[in-house]
Design a protein that fits this description.
Largest sheet: 8 strands, mixed
Number of strands: 11
Structural class: alpha/beta
Order of helices and strands: HEHHEEHHEHEHEEHEHEHEHHE
Number of helices: 12
């Protein structure tokens, strides 16, 4: 009876037809995990991939994942499969959809409602600006202009630098509407051709929610070097940076997943090395979540629905106490 039942089920399986698409974040370090998930699908359909097909899938994914991730960590890889009627093996195709940071933020502007980054300035920005009191300020990655507007209202001569054309337009419109004077420049902080409209250097540079988009500690160093070239000898740089817990190993898969979640992270040793190598020194180091929660004015906390989860590291780690967190780093010239 059992043998006959199995025999009829085999005939049933032969008449199964299936097709589908699975979309994976482009994380090259997780290629073997992706292959295992796909093999589980085919095994569930009673058509597991043989060794030759698995090798082919591995090769396709290796190339597509690497190319897509190199373009931007928010890129995806698409695996489309078909299961023919009969006993034939599954067929599949692998494609990628590459994305850029500018495109991601332009998409935010066109699809999201409400404040994208919060309506009020960062409390730490206001705290440091009050201590400096006046001068020329640069807001790198100005977003929709909340810190730019606050610095201008405090009397600083402000330049807002923003990569996204859509966000640059929002900042210009908001500043014009409120009668606040500031210069808005749409450009890439790493573009060697970029010229900013302050020749004598900036006294205060804000780099809020920018470093979490960087791809490597070398890029972090390049950013600090660029800022040194734009700054006065007495300048202060305030940057928000994801830093891992001491002793926590940031392996390649973890680094890549953090980048996918807009939470690019460095070890304390990497941060210290980048600061020292570029002629800066660390003046203050504060947890962003704790400082902003304590000092934001009533009614402005949290600034967005995603802020607490993101800056606590929970966007990258599904756990109560992640091994990374966003920190305010205040730098001075060494």
């Amino acid at each position: 009876m059992t043998d006959s039942r199995s025999a009829t089920l085999r005939r049933f399986e032969e008449r199964v037809i299936a097709s589908g698409e699975v979309i994976f974040p482009a994380v090259p370090a997780l290629r073997s995990d992706i292959v295992s998930k796909l093999q589980a699908i085919f095994e569930g359909l009673k058509r597991p991939l043989n060794e030759g097909a698995l090798a082919e899938l591995n090769d396709l994914l290796e190339q597509k994942l690497a190319d897509a991730f190199a373009a931007a960590p928010q890129s995806n890889v698409f695996v489309r499969y078909q299961l023919p009627r009969g006993s034939g093996a599954p067929t599949f195709a692998v494609a990628s959809a590459k994305s850029t940071l500018e495109e991601e933020y332009d998409h935010w502007v066109s699809t999201r409602t409400g404040s994208l980054f919060g309506a009020s300035a960062d409390a730490m920005v206001l705290h440091v600006a009050t201590e400096i009191s006046h001068g020329r300020a640069l807001d790198v990655g100005a977003g929709a202009g909340r810190n730019t507007r606050a610095l201008a209202e405090l009397g600083f001569d402000v330049v807002a630098l923003e990569l996204s054309p859509a966000l640059s337009d929002i900042t210009r419109d908001e500043l014009d509407r409120e009668g606040v004077k500031a210069e808005v420049v749409c450009g890439d902080v790493f573009d060697p051709r970029l010229e900013l409209p302050v020749k004598d250097g900036f006294d205060f540079v804000v780099v809020a929610e920018v470093v979490p988009h960087l791809r490597s500690v070398e890029q972090f160093k390049a950013l600090l070097e660029r800022l040194a070239g734009w700054s006065t000898p007495q300048a202060r740089v305030l940057a928000s940076v994801f830093v891992s817990d001491p002793g926590f190993e940031l392996d390649e898969a973890t680094r890549q997943i953090c980048q996918v979640q807009w939470s690019s992270c460095f070890t304390p040793e990497e941060v210290d090395g980048a600061i020292r190598a570029t002629g800066w020194s660390l003046v203050a180091d504060e947890a962003v979540l704790e400082f902003e929660r304590k000092h934001q004015t009533q009614g402005t906390w949290p600034p967005t629905s995603w802020f607490i989860s993101w800056c606590s590291g929970r966007d990258a780690f599904d756990m109560e106490e992640p091994p990374i967190e966003l920190r305010w780093l205040l730098l001075a010239r060494a």
